[in-house]
Amino acid sequence: MTVTVEIGGQLAYRWNHGAFLHQRAREYLLAAQASAAVFEPHPYLVARPRAGIRIEQDGATISTTPFHTRTTAATPPRAGAIAIAVVGGSTTFGTRVTDADTWPWQLQHALGDRYTVVNYGVPGYTTAENIIQMSLLVPESGARVVIFYEGWNDIRNYHWPAFGPDYYGHGMTQFDTLLPPHRDRASLLERAARYSFVMRLVGQASGVPVSASANPPSNEPDPDVDRIYVRNLRTLKALSGRFGMTALFVPQVLNEEALARAGERGGWTPYLTSAALPALMRNFNGLMAGVCAPGEPACVFVDEPLHASWTNDDFVDEGHLSRSGGERLAGILARRIQALRLSPVAD
């Protein structure tokens, strides 16, 4: 009986998640080990990029500046250049692509040496971490414009058990994602549950949290998260104004072809089905659209990405942009920045 349950559970897990339990555990371990080479602890943000590194991972070059930001150009910025800060999560950092294929690098290329683009993106960061960055770090760059590319990590909080206004549940998962421990501190039951469906059932019955998504994924919005998301975006807007920056709010675009193929699987959003995510994200982007008042000079909602025809070739997975996708987004943003007609920085 136990063997039958194990086999059936493993097959069901593979059907819902695209891999067997042991395969997912191995993938997670390898990704976590690679992450530890790039990131280091931070007292308020879980982790930040290490300074001045250059690492080759799966054919991609990841390099950072002395200021703990991902590199956006092969040469130092020109003195007196206008600083442009870009803030967001892994889709801003450029997960799974080499330096020169990230959209902030492409934005630097499109703008030229009259500007310097600083990439503050970090995988997993939500608007909560971005508020800390905007309070303590981004102002030090002297940025005249700040670009917020937001959505995917915030919507991950939809239907999270015991949701908190500080995104506590999502934030705690980032310790294992960005800073995996050198020694696995999980209990024997927790470790066994990563490989055995029966042990997962035993753990759940005994109250041990062995799964990030014990609840079935939903297709519905979450008004509590919507409210906090708008609150956080308005805080980012206020911080931008406080430091004299023009804020460009950019809606999240996703690979709808890949999400449709994933169907009922939760993927990065464990409590949402992948198939429902595109429609939910469109509504989420609509919340962002209301943050800037019409004609507000220092707050701009960049709506062009919503009207572009994004294809599977523009992404490397369900949401991270490929080089072609990065070039498209960078082109949109470069035109927006150039239209601001910012005066040069005085030497």
Produce the secondary structure layout:
Elements: H1 2-17, H2 21-36, E1 39-42, E2 46-49, E3 54-57, E4 60-63, E5 82-88, H3 90-93, H4 103-111, E6 115-119, H5 127-136, E7 145-150, H6 152-155, H7 168-178, H8 188-193, H9 197-205, H10 223-242, E8 246-251, H11 256-262, H12 277-289, E9 299-301, H13 304-307, H14 323-339
Parallel strand pairs: 5-6, 5-7, 7-8, 8-9
Antiparallel strand pairs: 1-2, 3-4
Query: What's the name of the CATH homologous superfamily?
Result: SGNH hydrolase
Name of the CATH first level: Alpha Beta
**Which spans of ≥5 residues are poorly predicted at pLDDT below 50?**
208-212
Instruction: Report the biggest beta sheet as strand number plus sense, adding barrel if it closes.
Output: 5 strands, parallel
Radius of gyration (CA) equals 21 Å
Overview of the molecule:
The chain is an alpha/beta fold. The chain has one domain: SGNH hydrolase (Rossmann fold), CATH 3.40.50. 42% of the residues lie in helices and 12% in strands. The strands form 3 sheets. Strands 6-5-7-8-9 form a 5-stranded parallel sheet, with helices on both faces. A two-stranded antiparallel ribbon has the order 1-2. β3 (54-57) and β4 form a beta hairpin. The longest helix has 20 residues, at 223-242. The chain is globular.
